[in-house]
Amino acid sequence: MTLLLPMKLRHRRICAAMLAIQLAGCAAGPDYQRPALAVPQTYGAAPAVIAAQRYVMQQDIQNNWWTLFKSAELNALIEQAWSANPGIEAAEAALRAAQENVYAQQGYFYPTVQAGYTPARTKVAGNLGGNSPGVQGNGSVISAKQNTPASEGGTAPFNAPVIYNFHTAQLTVAYTPDVFGANRRQLESLQAQQQIQRFELEAAYVTLASNIVAAAFQDALLRRQMAVVNEMIEANQLALALAQRQLKAGYISRLELSAQQGALAQSRQLLPALQKQFEQNRDLLRVLAGIPVDGEVPGFALASFHLPEELPLTLPSSLVEQRPDVRAAEEALRSASAEVGIARAARLPQFSISGSAGGAASQFGQMFWTSGKFFDLTASVTQSLFDAGTLKHRESAAHESLKGAVATYRSTVATAFQNVADVLHAINADSGTLQTAVDARDAARAAVDITERQHAHGAQDRLALIVAGQNLRQAELQLAQAQASQLGDTAALFQALGGGWWHRKED
What we know:
Layout: H1 4-24, E1 54-57, H2 72-84, H3 86-106, E2 112-124, E3 134-135, E4 141-142, E5 162-175, H4 182-249, H5 254-289, E6 310-313, H6 316-322, H7 324-345, E7 350-361, E8 373-382, H8 390-456, H9 462-496
Parallel strand pairs: 1-6
Antiparallel strand pairs: 2-5, 3-4, 5-7, 7-8
Helix pairs in contact: 2-4, 3-4, 4-5, 4-7, 4-9, 7-8, 8-9
């Protein structure tokens, strides 16, 4: 007993010292800091004044921004997509997996406790020499028996096999103090990876909604284009029939008839390509919304969409906080910074503490008698002395990965600024195109009205009226394209500014 007490005291002092070191120590490696960024004051040019819309600086973006287009069918399709799209399901599963990895790493801050019980029954061969007594199956000792082989000229000792049972039960507690912060850096890295999955999920929601909105606009545009082309085909068919009658009457030449036949063929040639795009776009809508390939998706019309009057515009300094891809890139940078600390801590001494207590006996009921009890308490420190530079090069690799993450982050931020600038230029340019298309449509419509009146008074023939109608339909095609582009630009602006994901309620 006099020797055991000082040993226990030394173990307690070791444990207390290691705990104090862990609580007072700093984590190895650099603490994360956001790298300096050259944030511009504007996106390259001041927003132009556009018809029917105006920019509102620093206006917050609602998470369901697509409702501003005031289409009930579009709203319902996006809500269905959020619950049925497999891409969202995969992103949610990745986030849950990352969360579980964080919880698992947090467990390393606590001791591990294990209980074990090991029963054994052993038979020792009797021909190993000596006069070892035997043990019966119940654990009691039996005496050795002598036997003389017939082939031997005399008698030789032969021991009976020794059979015995042995029971061991113990409780083991192990703890690894995080002296140099390797576990804290590992947790920091995993938490950053969890945030990456979170922002990728938010980006998946925003991207899915944007893709459905774009496909809905495309559906409406193609429907309008096919309707106008069918009208052009009908008008060209009427013009061809009139030309054939005029040819028979000798009013026109065969060359003029051929020109009219060519116009009909050209209008008919437009329809198959539009029909192919229309069906492929419908297939895309089904996939995005999680609808079976033979399922029904709603149809859309350009006239049913409302063009939002107010357009939000975030300052470049705020865009860094709003874009989910930028936030994900920053979390990747944070994870890379923590990996440097992990690699650095691996080169420092490693500490561990373990203790066990239990009992052992040949009888189960005797394991915890005073004579059968045992305990063990161990503290260890290990330091790598030679590893051919393995740990050093791993730390160097972590530093290089950190440099790459910094470059990727800056590139992502620059791309975000570019996206917003491109959308603003597109809105400004397409707004002018839309106004020009409206003016061209109005002029073509006025020409049709004049031609109709002249035709009613005999000043123009039927063919002139048909040509005026064709010009109007060409103007309507251009107008439909301009309307769809302006709607698409508006949706792209909401996406480029982050899509309002910070207002979405998480399940």
